[in-house]
Automatic annotation (TrEMBL):
Protein name: DnaJ subfamily C member 11
GO biological process: cristae formation
PANTHER family (alphabetical): DNAJ HOMOLOG SUBFAMILY C MEMBER 11 (PTHR44157)
Annotated TM spans: 416-436
The organism of origin for this protein: Hypsizygus marmoreus
Keyword Heme: no
Domain J per the UniProt entry, residue ranges: 15-83
Keywords, in A-Z order: Chaperone, Membrane, Transmembrane, Transmembrane helix
GO cellular component: mitochondrion
Signal sequence, renumbered to the chain: none
One Pfam family this sequence matches: DnaJ-like_C11_C
InterPro entries from the UniProt entry: DnaJ-like_C11_C, DnaJ_domain, DNAJC11-like_beta-barrel, J_dom_sf, Mito_inner_membrane_organizer
Length: 581
C-alpha cells in the first residue's frame, strides 16, 4: 500500500497551510492576518481582466476554504491529524464539546480505525485458532482418593483438563481485478495424535451483480476440488456447489449441495429456505424465517433517507430485531423438527438465540449470546444433545478468531446444561443492572447536555429565527383575526423539539406558534413530509441528531384540538380525530 492510500502525505496534509503561506505552528492572529491580506489581493471584484478573474476566483475560494478549516480549533485539530479526509466525517456536537485531550484521543482512534480498514480491504487477513478442551473432570465424579481435601480435589480436577484437538487456520485475499479475487488458506490440525495439513486456493469471479462463481482447489494431498456459483436476485438467492476428493485409490464419489432462499411477500420480510445435500451423508432442510423490528420510528433526513437518531435510551432494550425460524430437517432420511428464536438489542449490540431440535434421538438445544462492536465480538453458547454438554466460547478481534469448545459431559444431562446457561446469565443480568445501566444513563445525560449546549450557542441562528418570526407576526395576526371571526383554524400553541421527555430533553424545544399560523390558508394547514420541518420559515433544528415532533394545539369551530406530528408525517389540519373531548 502506498503512503497516499493509508495516510495523507506531508504535501496534502499541509495544503491549507501552504495556501495561506503559514507553518503548522501559526497562531490564530497570524491566520486571521494572512486571510485578510490574501483575500484583498485575490478578490475577484478587484480583477479587470476576465482570465485573471477566473484564476483569482479559484484562488479566492481556496483561501476561504483554508481559513474556514484553520480558524476553527476543532477542524484544525482534525485536519492536522487526519488530513482532508477527516473533514468529510460528520462530527457530533458531543465530540466538539470535549476537551482538547479527549478530542485528540478520539481523532487518533478514528485514524487508527481508518488505517486498519484500508489494510484489511487490501489483503483481508483472517486467522482462526481452535482448542477443544475436555473438562469433564470439573463436573463429573471425583476419581481420586476419597480422603483428599477440597483444595486437593480442585487442583486434581483442573490438572485433569486436557486439549483433545486443536486447529490453526489462516487466509489472505488479493483482488486481481474489480471482479476477480484470489484467496489462499492454510489449515494445520491435531486430532487423536495425528497432524493434518491442508492448503487451498480459491478463485472467485463476479460475472454480474447477480451471479458469482468460485473454484476451490486443495493443493496438498488428499487433493480436492469444489466448484460453485451464487445467484442473487431481488427476492431469491440460489447457491449451488459440487465437490470431490482425489484419494489414493481414485476419485471418491462427488458431493452436490444446493440451497435456495426466497422472500415470500413483496411487502413483508418472511423468507423460505431449503438446502439439499447429496453425498456420503445426504440431508434435506426446509425452513420458514420471519424477522421483525421493534422500537424503530424512521425519521426523514435532509437527503430524503430514513434513519433513526436519538439520545441513547437508559435501558438499551428499546430498539432491536427479532427472528423466528421453523423447519423440518431430514438427516440420513430421519426427520427432525427444528425451531429457533432470537432477539437483537441494537443499542447494546447484543444478540440472544435459542435453537431447538427434536427427532428420534430426543430433544437437543443450543442457547447462545453474542456481543459485538465494530472490531470485536464475543459469543458464548451451550449445546445439549445425545453427545453430551458443550460450552463453546468464541472471541473475534480484528478478524482474528479463537474458538474454545469445552466438553463438560459426554452424557445427556439437561440439568448440567441449564446450570451452564443460568450462571453466566445471572452474572450478565447483575452486570447490566449495576454497571451498564448507570453508564448508559450517564451517556444519555452527556448527549442531551451537548445538544442543549449547541442550542444555546447558536446565537446567530436564534437571532435569525427571531427576526423571521417578527416579520411573520403581522401576517399571523391578520390571519388569526380572520379565522377567529369565522370560527376557522386558529393555532393557540405550537412547539417543535425533541421527542424525548426524560433527563432534561424536554427543554430542547422552540415555540413555532407564529410561523405555523402564518401558513394557514382558508382554515387549512398542510406541511408535506418529504422535507424536514426544521426548514419551514421561522423554524430551526432545536435538537440536532435526535427525533423531533411538532405539537400543535388549535381551535376549529370553537373546539379545542391537539395533535403531534413526527418529522416523517405530513401535517394536515384540521382533522376530527384531533378533537379533545
Amino acid at each position: 500500500m502506498s503512503r497516499t492510500e493509508s495516510e495523507p502525505t506531508g504535501e496534502k496534509k499541509n495544503f491549507y497551510y501552504a495556501v495561506l503561506n503559514l507553518n503548522r505552528a501559526a497562531s490564530q492572529s497570524e491566520i486571521n492576518e494572512r486571510h485578510r491580506a490574501l483575500s484583498l489581493i485575490f478578490h475577484p471584484d478587484k480583477q479587470q481582466d476576465e482570465a485573471a478573474k477566473v484564476i483569482a476566483t479559484k484562488k479566492f475560494l481556496e483561501i476561504q476554504k483554508a481559513y474556514q478549516v484553520l480558524s476553527d480549533p476543532f477542524l484544525r485539530q482534525v485536519y492536522d491529524t487526519l488530513g482532508e479526509q477527516g473533514l468529510s466525517v460528520r462530527w457530533s456536537p458531543e465530540v466538539r464539546s470535549k476537551s482538547v485531550d479527549e478530542v485528540e484521543r478520539i481523532i487518533g482512534q478514528v485514524k487508527g480505525d481508518t488505517i486498519y480498514k484500508e489494510l484489511d480491504e487490501k489483503i483481508r487477513p483472517r486467522g482462526t485458532v481452535v482448542y477443544a478442551v475436555d473438562a469433564t473432570s470439573l463436573v463429573g465424579p471425583y476419581l481420586g482418593p476419597t480422603d483428599d481435601g477440597l483444595s486437593q480435589k480442585i487442583l486434581n480436577s483442573f490438572g485433569d483438563l486436557r486439549v483433545m484437538n486443536s486447529e490453526v487456520q489462516y487466509s489472505i485475499q488479493e483482488s486481481l481485478s474489480d471482479q476477480t479475487t484470489l484467496s489462499l488458506k492454510s489449515r494445520l490440525s491435531y486430532k487423536a495424535g495425528r497432524v493434518q495439513n491442508k492448503f487451498t486456493g480459491t478463485l472467485r469471479h463476479q460475472f454480474s451483480p447477480r451471479f458469482t462463481s468460485e473454484i476451490d482447489i486443495g493443493l496438498l494431498r488428499p487433493h480436492s476440488i469444489r466448484v460453485g456459483g451464487t445467484y442473487t436476485g431481488n427476492a431469491t438467492t440460489v447457491v449451488a456447489q459440487a465437490s470431490c476428493m482425489l484419494a489414493a485409490l481414485g476419485i471418491l464419489p462427488p458431493t452436490f449441495n444446493v440451497s435456495m432462499s426466497r422472500r415470500l411477500f413483496r411487502a413483508r420480510p418472511e423468507t423460505a429456505a431449503f438446502e439439499l445435500n447429496l453425498g456420503s451423508q445426504p440431508h434435506f432442510v426446509v425452513n420458514l424465517i420471519s424477522p421483525s423490528m421493534f422500537g424503530f420510528k424512521p425519521a426523514h433526513g435532509t437527503d430524503g433517507s430514513s434513519e433513526r437518531q436519538s439520545p441513547p435510551s437508559v435501558s438499551g432494550l428499546e430498539f432491536g430485531t427479532t427472528h423466528r425460524m421453523f423447519g423440518l430437517s431430514f438427516e440420513s432420511f430421519f426427520p427432525k423438527l427444528v425451531a429457533e428464536w432470537g432477539v437483537t438489542f441494537t443499542e447494546l449490540a447484543l444478540q440472544l438465540k435459542l435453537g431447538l431440535q427434536y427427532g428420534l434421538e430426543g430433544l437437543s438445544w443450543v442457547c447462545s449470546g453474542t456481543w459485538s462492536s465494530p472490531t470485536t465480538s464475543f459469543t458464548a453458547a451451550t449445546h445439549l444433545n445425545v453427545m453430551g454438554v458443550v460450552l463453546s466460547l468464541e472471541l473475534l478481534h480484528l478478524q482474528q478468531q479463537i474458538k474454545i469448545p469445552i466438553i463438560l459431559s459426554v452424557d445427556y444431562e439437561p440439568r448440567l446444561a441449564l446450570w451452564t446457561v443460568f450462571l453466566p446469565s445471572t452474572a450478565l443480568a447483575l452486570s447490566y443492572h449495576f454497571v451498564l445501566k448507570p453508564r448508559r444513563r450517564r451517556q444519555r445525560l452527556r448527549y442531551i447536555r451537548a445538544a442543549r449546549r449547541a442550542l444555546e450557542e447558536e446565537s446567530d441562528i436564534r437571532r435569525e429565527r427571531d427576526a423571521v418570526t417578527s416579520l411573520l407576526k403581522d401576517t399571523a395576526r391578520r390571519l388569526t383575526s380572520a379565522e377567529t371571526s369565522k370560527g376557522g383554524l386558529v393555532i393557540t400553541e405550537a412547539t417543535y423539539g425533541s421527542v424525548e421527555k426524560e433527563d432534561g430533553a424536554s427543554d430542547l424545544i422552540i415555540d413555532v406558534t407564529v410561523p405555523l399560523q402564518a401558513l394557514v390558508r382558508n382554515s387549512q394547514l398542510y406541511v408535506a413530509a418529504d422535507q424536514p420541518k426544521s426548514g419551514i420559515q421561522g423554524f430551526t433544528d432545536p435538537a440536532p441528531s435526535t427525533n423531533k415532533v411538532l405539537c400543535i394545539r388549535y381551535l376549529f369551530c370553537g373546539q379545542t384540538h391537539y395533535a403531534e406530528f413526527p418529522d416523517d408525517v405530513p401535517v394536515v389540519l384540521p382533522l376530527a380525530e384531533h378533537v379533545i373531548q
